[in-house]
Amino acid sequence: MNKTNHLKLYLYKHLNDRFNMRLIQILPLLFLFFSCTEQETILETETSRRTENIKEIESSAFQTLLDSADLKGAILVYDLEADQYHSNNYEWAKAGHLPASTYKIPNSIIGLETGVAEDDSTIFEWDGEPKMFARWEQDLIFKDAFHYSCVPCYQDLARNIGVKAMNEHLTKFEYGNKLIDSNDLDLFWLQGDFEISQFGQINFLKKLYLSELPISDRTEKIIKRMIVIDQEEDYVLRGKTGWSRQNDIDNGWFVGYIEVDGQVYFFATNIEPENNAEFDVNAFLSVRMDITLDALRELQII
Hints:
This protein has one domain (59-298): Beta-lactamase, CATH 3.40.710. Helices cover 42% and strands 20% of the residues. It is built from ten helices and nine strands. The protein has helices at residues 21-55, 60-68, 90-93, 104-114, 142-147, 151-161, 163-173, 198-209, 217-226, 281-298; strands at 56-58, 71-79, 84-87, 123-124, 140-141, 228-231, 235-246, 249-260, 263-273. The strands form two sheets. Strands 1-3-2-9-8-7-6 form a seven-stranded mixed sheet, with helices on both faces. It has a two-stranded antiparallel sheet with strand order 4-5. A hairpin with a 2-residue loop joins strand 8 (249-260) and strand 9 (263-273). Helix 2 packs antiparallel against helix 10, helix 4 (104-114) crosses helix 6 (151-161) and helix 4 (104-114) packs across helix 7. The longest helix has 35 residues, at 21-55.
């Protein structure tokens, strides 16, 4: 944790010889008043600066993880109880990127809230056409469609939700940088200029965890159950990966939160290959989660 510098107070007093005796008599009182006020202001400024330093902790270990995997980007971890962020690159973490399949979390919530999906057992029927992955070529219940990251399933979900309802919920959730229209309703999270930052992802997930999203208790219970990735005796891991390719650049996500020993830690990792010409799809798909878990180990969370 970084320590702030010691306070340095510079107090100046200028006295003009032409001032009358009365002013000279009251000047010490005025000086005392303004000196105290200035000191309080400086102390408040320095305290704020110290608090900011505590909240955003630079992690060289996170950068080492990315360097070792030939990646650029940022790992962002938020400790709710300590109100502290850990990252290797705050500038990257505050920049917007396509949400890709991480959007399946809010999309699922909106589907449940609008009644387009009844629950996490709602069936998405396969249309019989070949898909990108063999696991998509079957009827899938909602929960499996989420974990298989079935793009065609969620495109159907988005079309059935419609532009109006989608935008209403995006606005209520404060998710993303813009509203969408009918031209990109079923693709805006994978292509175009709809973006969310890593800080935005964590803010959204924090609202979900704290029951601060404007959704029903029923929807909240279903989605929290639906997004569980791993559950052991001492922890529960929830989240979603994402991958988009735009302008020949591959961008990967892993967002979520982990509950350990009564504490909760939120994470949002966003990465790109250091050299896209040497891009290895299979390695990229697995490394998103791997380096995030390694970062949590660095912080001794798991």
